[in-house]
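Class, study these two lines:
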Amino acid sequence: MRLYRFLLVLICGNALLQSALAQDSLNGGMYVDYQQFFSSLSFTPVAGRSPAAIQQDLKSSAARLVEDVPPATPLSLPGAGRKTLTAEAIYTRRKNSVLMVGRLKKAGTGAGISFDITGTAFAITAGGVCVTNYHVLEQIIAPREEAGRQDSAWFVITRDKRVFLINKIVSWSRNNDLAIFALDAGGARFDPLPLGKPAEEGASVYCLSHPGGYFWYFSKGIVARNAVVSGPSLATGFNPAGIKPVRMEVTADYGVGSSGGPIFDRRGNLAGIVSTTTPLGSVMRDSLGNNLGHQQMVVRDAVPVFALRQLLGLAD
């Protein structure tokens, strides 16, 4: 699910991937120049380890896991908020928890390297354990041979322009399109999102993600439907031996690149995770065979927080 491809210069340094950026906002940060956000981004490789070795370690960590099994060590998670917040407050409090997921690649000859922004993620612990979709990290969890592809490392970019390697897959579920992973944080701390309760139909929800290169895009909607979904219909693939897939359908806008983004309840707690979209439309033809069909609506499937709590081994 590629959005943008960038070219950067590989430099030497320590274990933490860092960025040094010029001023990229106006009016105290209200207006952000996202082109400038990327213009000076630089990557620092882990000392003594190549990006390819880190990628192999990532795949090895995933290969040792059993699908739908909670993490071996319980995670320290923040408590849920109880106070109803304005939409402005939810964005302000949660924007620093939302990450871009990227894939670092060789760019051919020379010193340059390129990367793609492939999705969205968010932190759930202060130490750098994060969540995204299974399909965002599928090439790590269930790698396939692709001619000409030379992925070398995966990473996240934070709102405050820090860049960290992904160094471990912690747990995953294909049926519920979830992947929990850990960062090579080097002692850095993150703003974790608190897990809320499952949202009922009609509840207001908010989505914060990166659709189509519109970074940190905030939208509002309601829960349209909660449903158990048919396994064979899943766009992410289905494991008949896995847990029963569930989805929370919402009307908040999101698109390609939003995958793995958080959906909040009115208290700013996590209510769900962006997964997929399904466009619905009519199929009509006139007497000459011309297509008169058109798109009518988009069903937006999210993974409810219930499924994440289940994967984490937490009580309902």
Notes: The radius of gyration is 20 Å. The CA atoms of residues 99 and 158 lie 5 Å apart.
